[in-house]
Design brief:
Blueprint (H helix, E strand, L loop, with lengths): L13 H43 L6 H14 L12 H23 L3
Helix pairs in contact: 1-2, 2-3
Length: about 110
Amino acid sequence: MKGYHGIRTSHDDEPATKVLAVFGAVVGGIGLIALSALMNGYVLSVLWGWFVAGYFGLKVLTIPAAYGLGLIVSFLTYRSNLKTEERSVWVNVSLVFFVPLFYLFMGWIVHMFM
């Protein structure tokens, strides 16, 4: 809305500001997820090199391979924080399908870098 005598007020930019805030949050969230994946892969690859590769004569892991290994371990050990009886039927059904699909999607992304 235009203010008095055609002067713009701070209310003019509210929808654009909200859109930019949401866009910034989405881009920032994706960036933090990517940074977290890189850090987890790096740390696991270094720890693997220090403790597993040297002692057992195995190959050193690359960062994508280390992240993929961490993804497999977290998928196999995943537990929801909520008890089954505290969740609705739809939440239980969605967890059965979407949690494995999420891990598969993340693995597919990592696989593209190998």
